[in-house]
Automatic annotation (TrEMBL):
Domain ABC-2 type transporter transmembrane: 13-219
Membrane disposition: Multi-pass membrane protein
Record GO terms (molecular function): ABC-type transporter activity
Membrane-spanning segments: 27-47, 59-81, 113-132, 152-172, 184-202, 231-253
Signal sequence, start to end: none
Stored Pfam families: ABC2_membrane
Family annotation (InterPro entries): ABC2_TM (IPR013525), ABC_2_transport (IPR000412), Nod_factor_ABC_transporter (IPR051784)
Top-level taxonomic group: Bacteria
Name of the protein described by the UniProt record: ABC-2 type transport system permease protein
Keyword Cell division among UniProt keywords: no
Length: 263
């Protein structure tokens, strides 16, 4: 009689990721809406502004802002609402009792969120290429082409504090409450972070306040990576501090939920 080998950590992550991707694809409307929403924002709010689409620097800034908008939306809603719904699912509760630890499921959800965030970047980049003057910054030789793939990686990494915030909301709220809380948190953070309106149009008080927000730090880093402009002295410190703080809060919320339900 032979004994089946125990699954490796990598195979567990792959299994969790496959299940979560299939679960997302079972609701195609939700997937399509999250993927095209940033592109629609670019199409309806940026493209009609001739002063923006005819200026390569302004076009790059708008593309970077809306790309990060899509990443932030994918991470925050995927975790904030997805984790809250999982906590009410008997199968997910059973899976959490298995002796594999929280790491495979958490990493798999991060991979799933990054995959759908990456999909949301593609239409934004295509529309930015076709309908704005952003490509002129590269064809003229002012910026190297390698900044585009590097920017995509940085944009995904800039979503980490929102991933942690989504985890915190998901472990602290029921699914119905999580939907409301995520929406209430998302739109003010996106607006005050300069993703819908460039920060130079803000009044002084809002511009000063936004420099302390994770969304503004992520936006400034995203714009700087693509265009070379917009980075402040405190940007890296701010996004690092917020990522660590929200990571600690997410870990505490996970342990709190684990302690309440399984001990």
């Amino acid at each position: 009689m032979t004994t089946a080998a125990a699954p490796t950590r990598l195979s567990l992550i792959k299994t969790h990721a496959t299940a979560q991707i299939l679960e997302q694809l079972r609701i195609p409307v939700a997937v399509i809406s999250s993927v095209i929403f940033p592109a629609l924002a670019l199409l309806f709010f940026v493209v009609p502004q001739q002063g923006v689409v005819e200026d390569p620097a302004a076009s790059l800034q708008a593309v970077a802002q809306l790309a990060l908008f899509g990443v932030m939306s994918s991470f925050l809603f995927n975790y904030g609402i997805g984790v809250a719904e999982e906590r009410q699912n008997p199968w997910s509760s059973y899976v959490r009792t298995l002796p594999v630890g929280p790491l495979p499921g958490t990493l798999a959800r991060a991979m799933t969120a990054m995959l759908f965030a990456l999909l949301s970047l593609i239409p934004v980049l295509i529309l930015g290429w076709l309908l704005t003057a952003a490509p002129e910054a590269f064809t003229s030789g002012d910026l190297p082409w390698w900044q585009v793939p590097v920017s995509v990686v940085v944009w995904l990494l800039c979503g980490l504090p929102f991933l942690m915030l989504g985890l915190f909301i998901g472990y602290m709220c029921t699914s119905k409450v999580a939907i409301a809380v995520t929406q209430v948190v998302f739109f003010p953070l996106a607006f005050a972070g300069g993703m819908m309106l460039p920060p130079f149009l803000f009044p002084d008080w809002l511009n000063t306040l936004s420099l302390f927000l994770p969304s503004r730090a992520a936006r400034d880093l995203a714009v700087f990576t693509l265009s070379g402009d917009g980075l402040h002295a405190t940007t890296i410190l701010c996004i690092t501090a917020w990522t660590l703080l929200l990571g600690v809060l997410a870990l505490w919320a996970n342990r709190r939920d684990q302690g309440r339900r399984f001990r």
